[in-house]
Amino acid sequence: MSLHEISSRLKRGCEVIRIVLIVSFVGMVMEFVFAYFSKSMILFTDFVHWAVDTALEFMSMIALYHASKTLRRFSWGVLYMETFLMLITSIAIISFYIISFVDYVNNIIYSANSKVTTQNPLLSLVTLSGGFLTLYAFAILRKEYEKLKLEILKSEYTHALIDVVAAFISTIGVVVTALTRNPSTELLTVIAGFFFALHSITNIVEDAARSIIGVEEDKELIYNIKLKLSELENVKVKNVDARKIGSFYIVTVDLYVDPYTTLIELNEMRMKIIRMCRSVSEMIYHVDVRFYPDVEKYRKILKQKRKGIKGKSV
Ligand SMILES: [Zn+2]
Prior knowledge:
With 314 residues, the protein is mainly alpha-helical. It has 2 domains: 3-213; 219-313, Alpha-Beta Plaits (2-Layer Sandwich), CATH 3.30.70.1350. Helices cover 74% and strands 10% of the residues. The chain has helices at 3-38, 41-68, 76-110, 124-148, 151-180, 183-213, 219-229, 263-280, 295-313, and strands spanning 235-245, 248-257, 284-293. A 3-stranded mixed beta sheet has the order 1-2-3, sandwiched between helices. Helix 3 runs antiparallel to helix 6 (183-213) and helix 4 packs antiparallel against helix 5 (151-180). The model has no long low-confidence stretch (mean pLDDT 86). Bound molecules: zinc ion (ZN). Zinc ion binds at residues 49, 53, 159, 163, 196, 200. It comes from Ignisphaera cupida.
């Protein structure tokens, strides 16, 4: 696969996630408006889930965008900052939610005749619409995965499928709660919804930990890349690093090269190395290649030159 092809695939993947991000944002606003006016705890929980998923989608889009710039160095700094921002936002939302949740549970336990917060069965139309939006996102992601074969789209559509189930459970919960006015049914639906939101939050925390702290450096992948690079002549591998962001890898290769190598040769070498790394795993979306002068070699050349000059003068 040519570099141009890799880059255009990643760009298309980025566009697809942008569409899903818009869908997610629409769903989030819709749930927020109805949760705010109805005061339904089920809808409020759903809103939290949508908000966290939107943040997750945003993180994937930004990471993929940077990865698609095949010839530019990967902007780790920007990624760290955005990941950190999304992490803080999500933690703030979840904390606010937990406070409301504790209040809600207290109300059920201690109030003698506690009423359910979801009283209108028509509110199920909101969660149902959310379900259809998610189904739409799932369909796009699935279709584009078949074309682009990008692993990130697969993990996105699997998540979308789980969320369709979540929307279905919420819808049933809203209808049953509003009709029976049973606090236990509502509480059960809320807890189920919260678990789905928690599933997304763990994804965000995991992603943040992976990219910021750099845990889960893939030792086997690094070994395989080193093995592949050993095929190259006139090159000494200084270091190889492979970091996972979400469902893909960013690889950094540091090499010692002959100090007399020309820029054109270096550029060709860089392209070759990017292709070699990509051949090790399809999940490597971006490769940064950094060159360092092989000082030892340079010293040897200088020594030989000096010896040559001495030899001539005698
Ligand atoms: Zn979700």
